[in-house]
């Protein structure tokens, strides 16, 4: 779809790079689908887009996963990467780059930046003791613990004392506070920004950025001490600049980096909003435009994760219900920045209500009436009445509002705005009753049906970033070659194509109480 106006700035969107220690689940899928929806939308309005995802392949969790399987860590990563790529393909994710942190291009960037930071006087060696969480791959201070346990994994932590290299993160504390206050778009949503500013009211400690090979061997060697490997977060976060050719393609890097938007889960907000910007400041690299932290998918009020044993397998959902309904549910159900509960009953209700009843049923009703009464060809527009002019006005307002909401990262509201428009067409059909009108005034019935068909075209285009396949069926059915988000593009005389049910209803078995059984 095109609005006819080319954007001036490119759009660089990233997901976190996911740990290669395990297989993907719905939590990972949500972030990546969200990035895909945003990238598709921005492309559709004429913007240049670069979409990055990938795998974090170093660190203790990956090493342990490989040891449990009795194989080399690199072999483990090489076997895991195709599984992630397969899922992204099945979920219709169209990324521009899939980065793996074991790639030579990335290791070079890590070593170059480590050298630059050390030469700038921001790395030193010291002995340190702290509570270490393998799951988070980081040390926690006493004040960060909850009842002596890791706040993420709710497990007792091991206290480790050892010599390591440290990054002078504390040196950049005030600079970071000033930057956050001066750049309201930098950390979103607002309550996450407040969370980070609250954390920064306390003195910021320096960051341990190495692990002795005696404890962990799977990582990027420190360029200045080969007895140590790089702390996984100092390695992993740099993927965002590696992909853009940092150090090798300055023109490409400058074009995209200033527009960087990092999508992350709230559990890695600290590393992205404190570690990452201070690292960039030390290396002399400008900060990304936005760090947007979304909530968790919950199952019975607990974060969905492998360690909690409450993972929903996205492959099973796709096999049972199709890709687009899964994408739709995840995008519609979660308010970005807040947690959301995943239940099969809410999935079924959302599918049957929004997709089967509102959207799919409208397409079936319109095409069936056109096939029966107009030989399968789109009727003439005719002379518009106040009803059609009202629909046009609503359509134009919807296009503007959806654009505003997506740019504000309020994807669920943009979807609901579109669905409200679809529902207004269903009401228009009920009010105009073209199945009765055709017997009295065929041209008037034709006007109603092509108006509804045009509304379907616009609705399908607005929903296409979310559901690329099913909406394409709508457009092909209507013969809608024009993808402009401007009212009145359907041509009378277009021959409709046959289509199967767009969203067959999910049958729900309701168990009646004994007293209702007769």
For the termini, the CA-CA separation is 54 Å
CATH architectural name of the largest domain = 3-Layer(aba) Sandwich
Give me the number of helical elements: 18
Q: What's the overall geometry?
A: elongated
Kindly provide the radius of gyration, computed on alpha-carbon positions and rounded to a whole number of angstroms.
Answer: 26 Å
Question: For this entry, what is the oligomeric state of its chains?
Answer: single chain
CATH topology descriptor of the largest domain: Rossmann fold
Main sheet, how many strands, which sense, barrel? 7 strands, parallel
CATH class of the largest domain: Alpha Beta
Q: In total, how many domains does the architecture comprise?
A: 2
Helix content: 40-55%
CATH superfamily of the largest domain: HUPs
Uncertain spans, ≥5 residues at pLDDT below 50?
2-7, 510-518
Q: How many distinct beta strands?
A: 17
Structural class: alpha/beta
Q: Provide the β-strand percentage band.
A: 5-15%
Overall residue-averaged pLDDT value: 91
Account of the 3D structure:
The chain is α/β, with parallel strands linked by helices and 518 residues long. The chain folds into two domains: 11-323, HUPs (Rossmann fold, 3-Layer(aba) Sandwich); 344-518, Isoleucyl-tRNA Synthetase, Domain 1 (Orthogonal Bundle), CATH 1.10.730.10. It is 48% helix and 14% strand. The protein is built from 18 helices and 17 strands. It has helices at 26-44, 60-69, 73-90, 104-119, 173-182, 190-199, 232-236, 239-242, 250-257, 269-283, 314-321, 323-333, 344-374, 386-407, 411-432, 434-440, 442-463, 468-478; strands at 11-14, 18-19, 49-56, 97-100, 123-133, 138-140, 158-167, 187-188, 207-208, 210-212, 221-222, 225-230, 260-265, 290-294, 297-299, 302-303, 340-341. The strands form four sheets. Strands 1, 2, 3, 4, 8, 13 and 14 form a seven-stranded parallel sheet that branches. Strands 6-5-7-9 form a four-stranded antiparallel sheet. α10 (269-283) links the parallel β13 (260-265) and β14 (290-294). α13 (344-374) packs parallel to α15, α13 (344-374) packs antiparallel against α17 and α14 runs parallel beside α17. 42% of the residues are buried. The model is unreliable at 2-7 and 510-518 (pLDDT under 50).
